[in-house]
Structure formats: structure tokens, C-alpha cells
Amino acid sequence: MDVNKYYRSIPKVDSIMENEEIKELLDITSRELVLECVREATEDLRIFINNNPSNENKINEEIKNIVNKITSEVHKITSYNMKRVINGTGTILHTNLGRAVISEQAAERVKNIVTGYSNLEFDLEQGERGSRYSHFEKIICRITGAEAAIAVNNNAAAVLLILSSMAKDKEVIVSRGELVEIGGSFRVPDVMMQSGSKLVEVGTTNKTHLYDYESKITSETKALLKIHTSNYKIVGFTESVSIEELSALGKKYDIPVIEDIGSGVLVDLKNYGLTYEPTVQNSIKAGADIVCFSGDKLLGGPQAGIIVGKKQYIDKIKKHPLNRALRIDKFTAAVLESVFHEYIDEERAINNVPVLNMINKNAGDIRIGAERLSNKLKEFSDFFEIDTAECLSQIGGGALPLERIKSYAVSIKPKTMSCASFERKLRDSEIPVIGRVVNDTYYIDLRTVLDNEDQIIYDEIKNIFK
Ligand SMILES: *Cc1c(COP(=O)(O)O)cnc(C)c1O
Q1: Ligand 1 neighbours by CB, cut-off 6 Å
Q2: Which residue CA neighbors atom 14 of ligand 1 most closely?
């Protein structure tokens, strides 16, 4: 077999560079990058020939395909990878899809702030250095009833920082029923270890009493820690100590009580058809000294860990060296301020914070939206069976794990391809659509589909079958 014959048939780099399609690439990127991709492609071809010297058909095919390969490689390198997607899963806080959606108004404010200079750490009244926390501290305190507040990178960081600053080398008492693992490797015992505090476990998995805590208090005890078991529920023969009782115990022994409440709920979710989830206000009122929670769970804001509570502890936390490593940037500070602003008026928050708005969407209205979309898609009923179906949305993000909210979906059963390949095509589209496949049927839950996205879904499905 004359391998050299094939080597000779590999187009020369210079001549590939003269190809019209390749020349067009110079409009979108540099000559260096195109050249690099051309060299790589010819080198790959050489290796292919070397490894498959007797596969003449395949070699010819590869040679014919070389321009396509180069253009697609250049496009791959020069196009953005992170994109907006449409969430048709019905999971409102989908961690893989970016958790909480931010409102247009909040995003506009951030855009305005970050495309110029800002008063991030500049006190405009005094004309001197200010604090990045000042923009939202007062408003958080107003809403939660706390004395002081600060925010860090996420809630995991908040727990780490709180324990490092309040209980390093000392003992922290935690119920065995609350030693949780939250998705993405947040484990309470591990975080405690990283903070240098010593975990003192009390009670059992299903039952912990107040006297369990009390009996383990020593001169080494620097905090009582309560953790919300956000993502699981123990039911049956169970008992745990409320934040009220624990706070009273802390007071009796002059030991601070810390609560990791998980999701930053600021409204009574019972009013919106869900199970009551402990609110930040309630923990503060109950007497907790420090409460921390996520910014991008039920609060509906940016990724952040918000710490609220007594000023003496927050001041110490602010000055801790770890805080510098965990601090939020101006994007987060700006969005946090926007989101908390909405909560000044609960009705505004329900309307303007997308997460709350999605929770509060009426099933009847969702049904109308699902019927509208499915009627439009009937145009393509040669290719699939289409219908609307009742379904159940969930909160997600490790919050309210048992909660399901009645909703409506468009259901699509492809006739000309498998459901798996339909799912893949929608995922591959210009604006990817992420739905759910159950029993060979594709579902798009309209609860998590935002205004105007139904038109995009229609267009992307049309693209698949046109
Ligand atoms: C979600 C959660 C965390 C982690 O919060 P992140 O903001 O994702 O870091 C910690 N503790 C509890 C109880 C949680 O629910």
C-alpha cells in the first residue's frame, strides 16, 4: 500500500488557506487562529492515514471533508459556550440551569453599574472610602429585623466564615438529625472541619431534645448550630428542637446560636399554596444570634451567602481575613440590592422576583399557555402527536423536597424519530430547550417557561421538522 500517495493527496496548507470557505473565516477571527486549525487538520489527516493505510474510502472521505472540519473547529472556538436556555423541566430552582432567574430590571441596573464606574466602595455623602456591604445592609436589616448583615460568595462560604470567626478551635453543638449533605458536596461535618471548629454531635438521627444540647455544653462550647434539613424530610417518630427553644438555651448559657436556614425565604409560603418554610424574620424574632442563607434559592437573587444577625458577631465576621477571600463582587452587590428592594413590599416581590412569580403562577393560566402553544404546534402534527397534560412542577435547588405544584405541560410524541433524538435536537438548537422525557413522551412544563419563550420553542421545533 502506497501511503505516500495518500500523503501527497493531502491539500497543502497554503492552498487550503485560499479556499473560499476558509477565507470567509477571516471575517470572524484572526488569520493565526485559522492557520492553526488548518495545520491541525492536515496533521490529523496525516495521522489518520498512518493509522488506517488500507482504508482507501475512508481516507478519501476525510480528505474531502477537511474544509468542513476546519470551519466547524474555528466556529467552535470562536462561539460562546455559555448560553441562555429554555427551562421546560418545571423545576424552578434548577441548579444545573443556573438556579434563580434574575428580573430584567435587576439585570438592567447591573448593566448600568458595571459598564461604568460605581460607588462600590465609595461613600458619596462623606466623599471617602465606603463599604460594599452598605448598599444592601440597611435594607436587609429592615426586612429581616436583624441588627447587621453581610454577604459572601455563597451559603457554603457563609457557614465556613461564621464558624471560622466565632468558633475556631472550639466546640460547636449540632443535632445528629441535621448533619446534612447538600448537592455539590456541601457537607456540614466537612465544612466544620475546614473552619477549625470541633463538631459535638448530640441526639439521634430522628430525635434530638433540648436536654441533649444542654448536657453537652462545656466551657469549650462557642456556639449552638441549627441547620435546616433543606433537601430531605424525616417523618414519623421524630423530634427536633425549635429555633425558639435553642435560642433560649443559648441565652441561658450566654452562648451564641447560629442557624443555617438554607433557603432565604422572606415571605410566608403558606399564602402561596406551599408548605410553610422557616423565614429569616422568624429566626431573628426567635432570638437566633446569626442566621445565614443562600441568595439564589427561594430568595430569588444572585449566588450569595447572606449572613444576618447581632452586630457584635457580624462586625467580627466582616473583619475576618477569610472574608476578603470570600467577598462578593460588584455584580452580586448590585443584584442583591435590587432583589431586596422588591421585598420592601411583598406584593411587588411576588410580581417582580421571577422565582416567586413562577411559584405563584396559577395552574389555570399555565394551562391556557400550554394549550396556546400546543395548538400552534398542531401545524406539525404529521411529525408528532401533540397534546397538553397536567403535570407537577417542583421547587428544586434542595428546597421543599416533597413539594409538588400542579402545572400544565405540552406533551410531544414524535412519529418520525425517537423521543431521545427529538430531545437531543431541541437541546442542540440555537436556543437550547431542556424538557423532560417520560415514557417516550417529551414534556415542556410551562411553569418555568418565561414570557415570549413559547415563541422560541415553536421556532426551534419548526426548525427541526422543516
Ligand atoms: C443550599 C444549602 C447550603 C449551600 O448553599 P449554597 O448557596 O449553594 O452554597 C447550605 N446549607 C443549607 C441548609 C442549604 O440548604
Answers
A1: 154-156, 182, 186, 227-228, 230, 260, 262-263, 294, 305, 398
A2: 262
**Where do the CATH 3.40.640.10 domains begin and end in the chain?**
104-352
**Band of the pLDDT at 53, cuts 50, 70, 90?**
confident
Q: Tell me what the mean pLDDT of segment 98-103 comes to.
A: 97
Which of 180, 186, 297, 306 for a ligand 1 pocket mutation test, highest count of atoms within 8 Å of Cβ?
A: 186
Query: Per residue in 150-178, pLDDT tens?
Result: 999 999 999 999 999 999 999 999 999 99
Please say whether the beta carbons of 41 and 65 come within 8 A: no
Q: Is the pLDDT of residue 126 over 90?
A: yes
Of all protein residues, whose CA lies closest to atom 12 belonging to ligand 1? 262
Measured from the Cα of 263, ligand 1's closest atom is 15
Q: Which atom of ligand 1 is nearest to the CA of 304?
A: 7
Give DSSP secondary structure letters for 248-266.
HHHHHHT--EEEEEEE---
Q: What is the pLDDT of residue 1?
A: 55
Nearest CA to ligand 1 atom 7: 155
Fold of 104-352: Aspartate Aminotransferase; domain 2 (3.40.640)
Give distance in angstroms: CA of 16 to centre of ligand 1: 53
Å from CA of 430 to ligand 1 middle = 33
Neighbouring-strand partners of residue 391: 407
Task: Using the mean position of ligand 1's atoms as its centre, give its distance from the Cα of residue 106 in Å.
Answer: 23
pLDDT band of residue 401 (cuts 50, 70, 90) is confident
Supply the CATH classification number for the domain 86-94+359-465: 3.90.1150.180
In ligand 1, the atom with minimum distance to the C-alpha of 229 is 13
Percent of the chain scored above 90 by pLDDT?
91
C-alpha triplet 302, 306, 310: angle, nearest 5°: 160
Write out the H or E segment, with its range, that includes residue 226.
strand 221-227
Instruction: Please identify, by atom number, the ligand 1 atom nearest to the C-alpha of residue 184.
Output: 8
231 Cα to the center of ligand 1, angstroms: 10
> Which residues belong to CATH 3.90.1150.180 in the chain?
86-94+359-465
**What is the C-alpha to C-alpha distance for residues 172 and 443, in angstroms, rounded to an integer?**
47
Q: Tell me the backbone φ, ψ of residue 123, rounded to 5 degrees.
A: -85, 110
Q: Kindly state the DSSP code that residue 397 receives in the 8-state scheme.
A: T
How close is the Cα of 99 to the center of ligand 1, in Å?
12
Yes or no: say if 139 and 337 are a contact pair by the CB < 8 Å rule: yes
pLDDT of 421 reads 96
Average per-residue pLDDT for the chain: 95
Q: How many Å is the Cα radius of gyration of the chain?
A: 28
